[in-house]
Amino acid sequence: MDMYSTITNIILKVPVFPYLWLPHCMLMSLSLRATLGHGPPALLFARQHPLSCYLMGVLYTFPGGLLSLILLNKPILTVLTLSNNLYSFTVVWYLMFFGPKDFLYRILTSRLPLLPLMAALQDWQRLGLVASGVKTILEVHPGFFLYPVVFATLKSSGFMIVKYCEQILLTGLSKAFVLPHHATKTMVVAACLITAQQLEMISVEYNDLYCGLVMITISVRLATSWICKNWDPYSGVEGQVCNLVYGYPEIFETKDEELKKKE
């Protein structure tokens, strides 16, 4: 019980800035480099088009915030009032693309187990965004369930919207919209549970629920990064529900596919 109290106390008192925010900035800048080309292509683009690269970095790092401002009908430039967040992001972005000897990129892509730990901290931050998103909507529209769930999901997982729009611009509508990673699905589940708790549909204290979600989310992230790689804990349930609701898909194989299997 003492250990649980210590852990929950840490979870509730750790400030988002800088402990959760800086890992998020590093991961998003790293994702931007992956989009532009990990090696020389990304650095060349950044040097030729520094402003475009910076604006892409802002879009990658603040997707949920920008999207929530649009949904709340607030000025997008309100993001400029987040001084500490914006300044620290700018420093991380600069070091990622213009740092001496590319040291930040080299450290993050080394064999050190940094990325899973940083991703776990990022998931922790996203849960905080879920909680704040639910409370924001319920303050204006109390008594509704679906609205805060959708808003909180978009606020915490705005990056998936950015990547899908990016995919549409590059390849058109050839790719379906899906929830690509189990962490995003966890945010949906968390939004449902926190909304239900706020509406008193479930009898559990908020602090206990939030701390439990943080511990489970971090554990799942680390387990799927180090032990069961590329494992989606929701895939089994998803498959059963889809088969129950939509039926089993009929698979039609062409003759060429059949011949390839025989060979």
How is this fold's topology laid out?
Elements: H1 2-13, H2 21-36, H3 40-48, H4 50-61, H5 63-71, H6 83-98, H7 103-108, H8 114-140, H9 146-156, H10 158-171, H11 182-198, H12 206-226, H13 235-246, H14 255-262
Helix pairs in contact: 1-12, 2-3, 2-4, 2-6, 2-8, 3-4, 4-6, 5-9, 5-10, 8-9, 8-11, 8-12, 9-11, 11-12
Kindly describe this structure.
With 263 residues, this protein is an all-alpha fold. It has 14 helices and no strands. Helix 9 (146-156) runs antiparallel to helix 11. The longest helix is centred in the middle third of the chain and has 27 residues, at 114-140. The termini are far apart.
Average pLDDT works out at 89
Assign an overall shape.
globular
C-alpha termini separation? 61 Å
Largest sheet: none
Helix content: over 70%
Q: What is the helix tally?
A: 14
- Tell how many strands the DSSP assignment holds: 0
Low-confidence parts, pLDDT < 50 over ≥5 residues?
Answer: none
Element string (H = helix, E = strand) = HHHHHHHHHHHHHH
Strand proportion, as a percent range, falls in under 5%
Structural class: mainly alpha
What is the C-alpha radius of gyration, as a whole number of Å?
Answer: 21 Å
